[in-house]
Fold this protein.
Amino acid sequence: MANRGQWIAVGGILTLLSAAIGAGMALSPDIRPVGPGAKAPNFSAADLVTGDTVQLSDYKGEVVLLNIWATWCGPCEVEMPAIQRLHEALAPKGLKILAVSVDETTPGEVREWVEKRGLTFDVLHNRSGQLERLYQTTGLPETFVIDRQGVIVKKDIGARKWDSAAQSAILRRLLGVDPVREVDSEQLPSDAETP
């Protein structure tokens, strides 16, 4: 009988432990996975042009392509021209691109890198590590497509040809605009071939 009582006690302890872990995961946004279907965590970063603090919540109701990158990241540099072309094509339709540099360098160094490449979409700087923790990044670049309700609908790790027909179709659908019929042959290699 004593063995049975011990097993009941062990079972009770395991149940309480499971409940505590479950409650902790439910209450802590840092533990929940950040990916498709999850609410995009809010964050703050400095606007490289104005120096103002910008938050993701400032873009509430918008379709956002959030790109987390760094100047020293080769694949990040590879995909930037495609992100610029996507910006030129879909910004007039309402797409907001937020490229957030996580460089530990000064904002001036990041701004110089951006200007040298002629990037005209919104570029922010967050060197605190907060953004990487919130979005649970495992490498760079990492990109999140966020719908008008603030829900992540797509997460990509690594460089992508963001202006390809397949990638822009997802964004066009979220924006409620007609898909593109033509394909530009002067684009980056396909997603499978991008480093």
Remarks:
- The longest strand covers residues 64-69.
- DSSP finds five helices and seven strands in the chain.
- Confidence is low (pLDDT under 50) at residues 182-188, 190-195.
- Residues 2-27 form the longest helix (26 residues).
